[in-house]
Amino acid sequence: MTQTYRWPLRIATIIYCVYMLFFSNMYHFMALNVVLAYIPLEISFHFKQVSNRLFILLGMLWLLFYPNAPYLFTDFFHLEKLSIYRGMNQVFILNLSDWFSFSLLTIGICVYGLFGMATIFTTLNECIRRNSLHKKWQEFFFLFLVTILSSVAIFVGRFDRLHSIHLFTKPVQTLKIIFFNWSFDKLLFIFLFTGLQLILLATIVGINKMKTIDTL
User: Fold this and answer.
1) Closest-CA residue to 200 (of 124, 143, 128)
2) Where is the chain membrane-spanning (predicted)?
3) Are 152 and 118 in contact, with CB atoms under 8 Å apart?
4) pTM
């Protein structure tokens, strides 16, 4: 993300969150979810400006909030609250208020989900630039490890109702839930969402490649 687009994105985020919190008919929770997903993006803006020691601290903070970006995609199930869909054999209802809510939810999920997830490449590139990663397999391991940890965080966020902030308010209890409560269904969920995230990351790479081709 270039310097040029930082402030427009910041302003757009504030407008979206204020509207969702105070003026939307539903989905008020998206204000908080978008703020949490935006945090890793804001952190990534400052990577190149800091020393190696501060970069490590920022990187840890980035990793803490990064899962909030792919977590947004689980909010699609809230579409069931809308009246526009009445089942497989029913026609859609032309309720413009609900279609507007649909649009706002989709914008929040897709824009901040994808922008937030794209910061994994910003972080990776910064690690390479600072010679923290030297080989190709280390880059793939970094992507895979972050994606797995993110899937674990999504599981505990969705099913155990934990947020990133709980690592500060209830650190011991939160770490126990994250790393010591396991089940077969949890493993399957993590496997599923790791695959989903890798596909979304591949999509981000593909879009970037298409942009590069268009400029040739």
Assistant:
1) 143
2) 7-23, 29-47, 54-73, 99-120, 140-159, 187-207
3) no
4) 0.89
Q: How far is CA 127 from CA 55, 60, 65, 124, in A?
A: 9, 12, 18, 5
Three-class SS state of 182: coil
CB environment 97-136: b (16+ within 10 A), e (fewer):
ebeebbebbeebbebbbbbbbbbbbbbbebbeeeeebeee
| Residue 37 φ then ψ, to 5° | -75, -25
**What is the C-alpha to C-alpha distance for residues 120 and 113, in angstroms, rounded to an integer?**
12
Q: Is the pLDDT of residue 12 over 90?
A: yes
10: Cβ contacts below 8 Å, ≥ 6 apart: 42
State which amino acid sits at residue 110. C
Query: What is the per-residue pLDDT across 156-187, written as a single tens digit (0 to 9) for each?
Result: 999 988 877 787 888 888 888 888 889 999 99
**CA 85, chain centre distance (Å):** 27
Distance CA 124, CA 132 (A): 9
Q: Which pLDDT tens digit goes with each residue over 47-60?
A: 999 999 999 999 99
Per-residue model confidence as pLDDT tens digits over 123-143: 999 999 999 998 999 999 999
